[in-house]
């Protein structure tokens, strides 16, 4: 009984630690149960020899030798060595007990197997018996001992059998243990392998976890990428869908277009057939035309050659025209010189209705002179009554005027006198402004050609000077100044074709009481002092501080004339007409340069001419003013007019003398502002025209005769040879 715990304790210590808990434990329990059953059986046979007595022995029980394999296995592993299973032994009989109870040799049972010879149970029983036999009962005791010896022998035999059986069982158990230990080792190895595998697997697991983590991250990234990709794809899909939609609509349109094109093609096919037919016809026509074209091409090349020749001819003609222009100028000037560089025209104005009232016609007082056809007849009668006897005998050349006057002698006899005057041209009262200008226009041309021209209107007050120079408001009544300006502009324009380019400027001055006033200026009359400057090199005359206007159109000149007229009206007093008592000088300066024509270089020749149109003060005051003499201012005016007009006569006379005799004759230009101003236009290199205006009235006859005599004197003067002011730059 006491060995069970040892088996029990050895079993878990030796097996449970290293082998699996199930199978070895079961096997140990079953063998122990069988042992427990045998021991219970022994107890039943010999109660006093209880097994616990064995357990009390100090002899150590011989443990079952563990198999070398098991021992080696456990020791090699370093684990606690399990307690080996002990072989069951019979309890040994101590010498002390044997000496007292029975002789050892006789009482020793026959030798048996080692296992059975060593039981100790008998000795345990004898050694531990409670009662010690007495010497009287030795025989019984021997019997008893023998019985007991036999019993013991049988018990030992049974025990031996049991021991053998147990040994066999033990051997089986050992084998099983060995087997289990082998299994255990195998399992340990498997376990180690499994552990190492587990370790590897753990490492792999860690590695795999890392990999999984990485893969997860990668996966997340890929997921994100994929999501983005998906979004992108979505976007692309949307775009593609949109494109698809557009494509579809385009396709629809294209289909429509195709449909319409098909229709068109169908129409076109029909038209094509028609056109093919036409084309064939046209090709035939074309062939015919081609041959014609060849003919025309030849003609064109011939014409091109002709054109080139013609263009060359045109170029030559242009050059020729420019050269002939120079010739024309020379010839024109020669003609003007032959006509005389100072010429005199005489113009008699018509009798005006206003003359009837002013000069007291008997018909005008009757009041019937101004109405109806009867009135016109009366007017004609009144005219005859008032007008002087002017006759124009030269009906072909219009160069003569005959004045007949009658006067009473001291004896009371009527004396008739006839004066015959000849001028370059005589204009009758019916003459128009255009007719007068026709003669003057030649001088305007000379001015454009670079000559200085001076045209005077001379005559008594009311004789028609202003009318001749400035004219009336209508186109037909416009005077010499606007016509000359128009002529200059027209000719300047025409001269462009001959390579000339002109610029024009104008000034309008008044000489009143030997003072120069600017009719185009803003300054108050008679206040500002203007000086006359002559440039001896260029022959140009300039007046200081006067308005010189660049002229761009004839209409501009008309405006200037009206400005001048209004300024004169403001300056006029109530008593006197300022225009009658002053000279007005309109100067048109013309500057030209030959720049050439297209493709033909100009000569560069420059010319500068001036056209002076002078409306003189009334000439009659020469006599009348001195006769009166009461009004000092008027006397002064008259004296100035007298001086300037006589100075003009003197200059012309001196020029005439110089022309006739030559030499270094002094010309008194400085005797008056008028002659000094017109110095360069009166000298030998200029052309002068005096228009003598005559009143047709008999009341003015004496004045008219005086004027005629003055004009004749001028007309008979020959001013040298006109010299063209030109210079080559
Ligand atoms: N040929 C003409 N035909 C028609 N009317 C004329 C003619 N000549 C002059 N007259 C008229 O005679 C009048 C006097 O002429 P104008 O004023 O021109 O004379 P004037 O000599 O200039 O006088 P003044 O010296 O006072 O200026 C004006 O009414 C003008 O219209």
UniProtKB/TrEMBL annotation:
Name the segments for region: Disordered. 1-142
Q: Where is the composition biased (Polar residues)?
A: 55-77
Give the record's GO biological process terms: microtubule-based movement
Enumerate the UniProt keywords alphabetically.
Answer: ATP-binding, Coiled coil, Microtubule, Motor protein, Nucleotide-binding
Binding-site residues, ATP: 459-466
What spans are recorded as compositionally biased (Low complexity)? 1-12, 96-123
The record's section on CDD domains has: KISc_C_terminal
Kindly list the residue ranges recorded as spanning the membrane.
none
Q: What is this protein called?
A: Kinesin-like protein
Could you tell me which species this protein originates from?
A: Agrocybe pediades
Task: Give the taxonomic lineage as stored in the record.
Answer: Eukaryota, Fungi, Dikarya, Basidiomycota, Agaricomycotina
């Amino acid at each position: 009984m006491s060995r069970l715990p040892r088996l029990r304790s050895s079993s878990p210590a030796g097996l449970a630690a290293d082998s699996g808990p199930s199978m070895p434990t079961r096997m140990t329990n079953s063998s122990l149960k069988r042992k427990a059953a045998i021991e219970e059986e022994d107890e039943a046979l010999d109660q006093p020899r209880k097994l616990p007595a064995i357990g009390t022995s100090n002899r150590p029980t011989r443990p079952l030798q563990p198999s070398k394999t098991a021992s080696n296995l456990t020791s090699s592993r370093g684990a606690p060595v399990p307690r080996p299973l002990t072989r069951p032994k019979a309890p040994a009989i101590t010498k002390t007990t044997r000496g007292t109870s029975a002789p050892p040799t006789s009482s020793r049972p026959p030798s048996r197997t080692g296992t059975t010879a060593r039981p100790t149970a008998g000795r345990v029983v004898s050694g531990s018996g409670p009662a010690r036999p007495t010497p009287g009962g030795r025989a019984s005791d021997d019997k008893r001992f023998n019985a007991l010896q036999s019993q013991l022998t049988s018990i030992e035999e049974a025990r031996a059998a049991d021991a053998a059986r147990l040994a066999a069982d033990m051997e089986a158990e050992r084998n099983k243990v060995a087997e289990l230990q082998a299994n255990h080792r195998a399992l340990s190895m498997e376990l180690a392998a499994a552990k190492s595998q587990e370790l590897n697997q753990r490492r792999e697991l860690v590695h795999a976890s890392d990999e999984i983590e990485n893969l997860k991250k990668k996966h997340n990234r890929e997921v994100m990428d994929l999501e983005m990709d998906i979004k992108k794809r979505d976007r692309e899909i949307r775009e593609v869908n949109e494109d698809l939609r557009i494509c579809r609509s385009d396709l629809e349109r294209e289909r429509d277009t195709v449909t319409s094109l098909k229709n068109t093609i169908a129409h076109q096919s029909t038209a094509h057939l028609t056109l093919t037919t036409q084309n064939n016809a046209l090709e035939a026509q074309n062939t015919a035309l081609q041959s014609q074209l060849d003919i025309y091409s030849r003609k064109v090349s011939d014409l091109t050659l002709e054109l080139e020749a013609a263009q060359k001819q045109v170029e030559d003609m242009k050059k020729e025209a420019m050269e002939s222009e120079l010739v024309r100028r020379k010839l024109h000037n020669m003609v003007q010189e032959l006509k005389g560089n100072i010429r005199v025209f005489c113009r008699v104005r018509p009798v005006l209705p206003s003359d009837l009232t002013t000069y007291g016609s008997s018909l005008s007082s009757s009041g019937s002179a101004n109405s109806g056809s009867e009135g016109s007849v009366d007017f004609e009668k009144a005219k005859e009554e008032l007008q002087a006897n002017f006759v124009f005998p030269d009906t072909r050349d219009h160069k003569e005027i005959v004045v007949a006057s009658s006067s009473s002698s001291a004896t009371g006899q009527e004396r008739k006198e006839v004066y015959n005057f000849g001028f370059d041209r005589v204009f009758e009262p019916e003459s128009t402004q255009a007719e007068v200008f026709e003669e003057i226009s030649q001088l305007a041309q000379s001015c454009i050609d670079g000559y200085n021209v001076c045209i005077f209107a001379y005559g008594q007050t009311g004789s028609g000077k202003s009318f001749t120079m400035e004219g009336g408001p209508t186109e037909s009544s416009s005077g010499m100044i606007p016509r000359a300006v128009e002529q200059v502009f027209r000719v300047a324009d025409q001269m462009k074709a001959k390579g000339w380019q002109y610029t024009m400027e104008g000034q309008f001055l008044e000489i009143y009481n030997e003072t120069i006033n600017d009719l185009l200026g803003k300054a108050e009359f008679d206040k500002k002092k203007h000086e006359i400057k002559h440039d001896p090199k260029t022959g140009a005359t300039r007046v200081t501080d006067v308005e010189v206007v660049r002229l761009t159109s004839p209409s501009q000149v008309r405006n200037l004339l009206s400005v001048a007229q209004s300024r004169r009206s403001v300056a006029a007093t109530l008593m006197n007409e300022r225009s009658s008592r002053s000279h007005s000088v309109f100067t048109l300066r013309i500057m030209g340069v030959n720049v050439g024509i297209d493709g033909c270089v100009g000569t560069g020749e420059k010319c500068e001419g001036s056209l002076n149109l002078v409306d003189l003060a009334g000439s009659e005051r020469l006599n009348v003013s001195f006769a009166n003499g009461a009004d000092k201012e008027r006397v002064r005016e008259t004296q100035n007019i007298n001086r300037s007009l006589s100075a003009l006569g003197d200059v012309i006379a001196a020029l005439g003398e110089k022309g006739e005799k030559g030499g270094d004759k002094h010309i008194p230009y400085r005797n008056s502002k008028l002659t000094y101003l017109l110095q360069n236009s009166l000298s030998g290199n200029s052309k002068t025209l005096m228009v003598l205006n005559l009143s047709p009235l008999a009341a003015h006859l004496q004045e008219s005769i005086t004027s005629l005599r003055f004009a004749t004197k001028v007309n008979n003067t020959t001013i040298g040879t006109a010299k063209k002011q030109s210079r080559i730059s």
